[in-house]
Amino acid sequence: MGQPLIILNSCDIMDEFDKKGAIYSDRPVLEMGGELVGYAESLVLMRYGPRFRTYRKHFSRYIGPNKPIQSLHPLVEQESRKFLRRTLENHKNLSGNLRKLAGGIILGLAYGYEVQDGDDQFINLIEQANNNFNKASVPGAYLVDVIPALKHLPDWVPGTSFLKLARDWRRDTEAMADVPYAFTKKQVAAGTAVPSFVSTGLEDEASRSSEYIRDLKWTAASLYGGGADTTVSSEYAFFLAMVLFPEVQKKAQAELDVVIGNDRLPTIADMPRLPYVNAVVTEVLRWNSVAPLGVPHTAMEDGYINGYFVPKGTILIANLWAMLHDPEIYPDPFVFNPERHLGPEPQRDVRRVCFGYGRRICPGMHLAEVSVYSLVSTSLAVFNMEKALDGNGVPMTPVHENTNGIISYPKPFDCAIKPRSEKALALITESHI
């Protein structure tokens, strides 16, 4: 319908757009998911401009290069150990346990909030908003994304049921930002707040403008909105890969047994000494495309890439799934093979593809990396992940299939997760904080 569209299927071409990120870092307007449901207030859909740069400065203040990520390692390791205990108690709730793991890290970082066992109000609140967004952003699901004028129709007109749905979902989006922010603000007022992104940002609150407070609140919400879903997808895929490729699991466990031993859990400080475990993390990112088509970019002015004219307003879609499954770069791309990331000349830097390009590169990429590593290394150290048995005692082989949406998850699967030994069991039970 007259909209220029470029699909990037080549890592080399994406590198070219990266080098000229200043003019290719805007976002297209997503009428349903962004404007109507409210995610245009979050960093992931924020148009490029002064507010976007303010959000990035807030991120940099707490998890950027001037704030060493090492300061967050204790939080990541604490929540990873809680995950081990929860999974020991109920491995059938693997997906829920992973959501609490991701939620515990990000809610602790953003708000100083400790996730509760059982039903947790903040986890439920934020997951509901994120689920809404995933539904609202499916390409082609809502005609208003193609014909924006439809959003101005009265909701009694036939075919406008999406307007009521958008209002309901917008309330969830606003609650995702407002409720945990109010929790931390109350803690600050009472003098009981623990250090967090919001509590440190509220220092000298009386002198802060309403715009500052608004941006602080929505940057905090963006931490969870942009990080939790993606991390959970990668971590869930890790367990699927270990079930489908037991030889990889055994090799990673052998490295852990030699380097770490059986008397303690691996830590983030051990990362440099565990090349194969790190390769497992990298292969998880490649094998399971968390965001198969990324999030679209928009050209802010005319330009040329590799001799091709790119008009202002062109929507750019990076086909990350194709890049990460290119058989010329990754032979047998559907096989989970960490070996491809080892050696003097490992195959293309997967992280470089997964975490975006230009000025939209993920500001939380280092936190995401250590979070996935912590989950992978500690789980391999203490658990065996195996095929579940059906009613007749026959092992069931899960299938690697993914859901639709901007964020894609492996479809639910069954598996058996058991302690590797009595020593491993003791490490799990002793590690609870």
TrEMBL record:
Pathway per the UniProt entry: Secondary metabolite biosynthesis
| Domain of life the protein comes from | Eukaryota
Q: Extract the Gene3D superfamilies matched here.
A: Cytochrome P450 (1.10.630.10)
Which Pfam families does the entry link to? p450
List ligand-binding residues for heme.
C362
CDD domains noted in UniProt: CYP64-like
Q: Please name the SUPFAM superfamilies in this protein's record.
A: Cytochrome P450
Q: Where is the signal peptide?
A: none
Alphabetized, the UniProt keywords read: Heme, Iron, Metal-binding, Monooxygenase, Oxidoreductase
Q: Which GO terms describe its molecular function?
A: heme binding; iron ion binding; monooxygenase activity; oxidoreductase activity, acting on paired donors, with incorporation or reduction of molecular oxygen
Q: Which cofactor does it need?
A: heme
Q: Which family is this protein grouped under?
A: Belongs to the cytochrome P450 family.
Q: Give the protein's recorded name.
A: Cytochrome P450
Organism expressing this protein natively: Crepidotus variabilis
